Amino acid sequence: MSNKYTEDDLREELKTKEYEYGFYTDIASDTFPIGLNEDIVRAISLKKEEPEWMTEWRLEAFRAWEKMIEPEWANVHYAKPDFQAISYYSAPNSKPKYDSLDEVDPELLATFAKLGISIDEQKKLSNVAMDVVVDSVSVATTFKKTLGEKGIIFCSISEALREHPELVRKYIGTVVPQKDNFYAALNSAVFSDGSFCYIPKGVRCPMELSTYFRINQAGTGQFERTLVIADEGSYVSYLEGCTAPSRDENQLHAAVVELIAMDDAEIKYSTVQNWYPGNAEGKGGVFNFVTKRGLCEKNAKISWTQVETGSAVTWKYPSCVLKGDNSVGEFYSIAVTNNYQQADTGTKMIHLGKNTKSTIISKGISAGKSQNSYRGLVKISPNADNARNFSQCDSLLMGNECGAHTFPYIEVKNKTAKIEHEATTSKIGEDQIFYCNQRGIDTEKAIALIVNGFSKEVLNKLPMEFAVEAQKLLEISLEGSVG
Amino acid sequence: MLKIENLHASVEDKAILRGINLEVKAGEVHAIMGPNGSGKSTLASVIAGKEEYEVTEGSIFLNDEDIDELAAEERAHKGIFLSFQYPIEIPGVSVTNFIKTAINANRKAKGLDDMPAKDMLKLIREKSELLEIDRKFLSRSLNEGFSGGEKKRNEIFQMAMLEPKLAILDETDSGLDIDALRIVANGVNKLKSKDNAVIVITHYQRLLDYIVPDFVHVLYNGRIVKSGGKELAHELEEKGYDWIKEEVNA
Ligand SMILES: Nc1ncnc2c1ncn2[C@@H]1O[C@H](COP(=O)(O)OP(=O)(O)O)[C@@H](O)[C@H]1O
Ligand SMILES: [Mg+2]
What we know:
The structure holds 2 protein chains of 2 kinds. By secondary structure, chain A is an alpha/beta fold. Chain A has one domain. Chain A is 25% helix and 34% strand. Chain A has 12 helices and 23 strands. Chain A has helices at 7-15, 38-47, 52-66, 106-114, 119-126, 144-149, 157-163, 165-171, 182-190, 430-438, 443-459, 464-478; strands spanning 29-31, 90-92, 129-134, 137-141, 153-156, 195-199, 209-214, 225-230, 235-243, 251-253, 256-261, 266-274, 286-296, 301-308, 313-316, 319-322, 328-337, 342-351, 357-366, 371-380, 388-397, 403-412, 418-427. In chain A, helix 2 (38-47) runs antiparallel to helix 3 (52-66) and helix 7 (157-163) packs across helix 8 (165-171). The two termini of chain A are 19 Å apart. By secondary structure, chain B is of the alpha/beta class. Chain B has one domain (2-249): Rossmann fold (3-Layer(aba) Sandwich), CATH 3.40.50.300. Chain B contains 9 helices and 12 strands. Chain B has helices at residues 40-48, 72-77, 95-109, 117-130, 148-162, 178-191, 205-208, 230-239, 242-249, and strands spanning 2-11, 14-24, 29-33, 54-62, 65-66, 80-83, 90-94, 141-142, 166-170, 197-201, 215-220, 223-228. In chain B, a hairpin with a 2-residue loop joins strand 4 and strand 5 (65-66). In chain B, helix 3 runs parallel beside helix 5 and helix 5 packs parallel to helix 6 (178-191). Classes of the chains: A alpha/beta, B alpha/beta. Chains A and B meet through helix 10 and helix 11 of A and helix 2, strand 6, strand 7, helix 3 and strand 8 of B. Residues 11-12, 14, 16, 34, 36-42, 52 of chain B line the site of adenosine-5'-diphosphate.
């Protein structure tokens, strides 16, 4: 069997395969000079025609950020970005509002075509309204009318600041305060755009709300701000998906997402994250430092589901503050790392109310020379009688050069709490691959099958159309990682 | 169909197969018997193309084609099927999903499109009825928590779905009670035709009462040391293997 095409050959061949979505769309943009100071913060606010309180709010965040230091506790190693070498604003030159897709920049549409996302198809087939964010500014908003009839507001956060300033002012920073952490403070100071969503009392949002983000300008950071408010008894499912073009220098991404689920409301927030992970030698790739947090009032429920396959460095802990009695927090995560990727991700479940319940299912898949860490905190405060948590952290290793780590922190201040934690580590075995091969399934497909099986509990939590895309991403991310 | 010439194979420089010669023609059933550790499973794995084993000498021909260079999945596409002595678990992948993936991978290799869902369901229903497999069983994770008997029955279910040209059953009878044995044997007999062949690896005469072999071979110490008709199996059942060992060592 000497001349056989071996797994090593396969690995070599795939190493040279360029990042599938690595292309760059040339849309003329209007970019600020690099660097960050109070004038830049003011200029961003001015450019976006924001009310004065918002400018002040940003400045407050900026002043706090200046005094903060970048955290170092995460299990990731990278050259810290030079925050003065980044341009903090970049937007397409003109910002026309489109009524139909025909008016959208054809190059942008071509980009979507390459990604296999046809907005039209999405609209028709999957009943998805999309607020498309390209380089931080919304250029296309669809399905707004249908949503409008139900009183649902779904728009860019800049637009929300113009049209519904009282709502933004009431809720922004209430879940993730400006000074929450280094990256959140930075985001609060310079966020360029993002999405805003408000579901009125008792309304069930009739479709999945979806935003596609892209980083599209060399050397520009991306600082989205997302605010989702589900009023009493309402329901919304929100999808966030990302892809980024292949760029050589590291790009910084520091988003903030705040969710507010009022009494009896439910928010499902699903993410597929596929930022550029860097090349096979570990060069380039996105730094993804995200702060995501949700607040649950009485009987409310927030579910975070994430499929993280991209970025060179990921620092991300979607969390739930279970403030109201009987509220429920869920975190379902798949994190894939390959080559030199590093991910430190997990969740925080803060139980404040009585009878609060949380579930954590984390699936880490590591390949290549990557490092994949789960970091989770379950905190039961003194008043949280009968709080319950179930955590399960499973790691799947491919090859011998990668690492999987689990850091579960548990703080219990109430004796009635019930906490269960399970963790497993497994490897894709040669026997499993041979078994699949023997049935006619090639190695690449076998790995996809095994990984999908491993991730099933989380994939099942995603909306259908997203699950298919997520499965494809898992396959792409692990190509050539046979160990 | 299958022709093996002077096959030597080793793992980690340890020689296990030491000159196997075997010819299996279409329409035939061959039984391979022999004491534990004699190399039966290794032979099955080498025919199926497991890379762990290195072929150091000799050749395997499938329909006159030397398959030495073919990867395991390519051999499967050509109709080789192995019912594993120890079937492997794949957590989270249902029996249905697995067999669907396998069938479509084989179709793709032949340039065919995926099997339409309706046909797939029909085929699954037909074959699971043949093997008296409960529908609920099909949605369980592949081999995870299966009893020994369930694993073996699932192997034969997959065989029935894939309709191979050459089926190698490695101790499929172990772990089966008499009813299950009859069901499994029935599944194998349904597959049998003048166009395909079956190799049955077993310790016991029992299975051979249901799947009647044309030839019986005794594998010992990496070689086929004795061949005969089905009566040889009876003789082995009665006398054990010691007399063979003595013959060989004499
Ligand atoms: N992967 C392996 N590594 C080391 N030794 C092996 C391996 N596979 C088989 N062997 C050895 O080869 C011999 C034959 O094993 P096997 O083919 O399983 O025998 P049988 O199926 O006839 O019981 C045994 O001594 C066994 O220990
Ligand atoms: Mg054996």
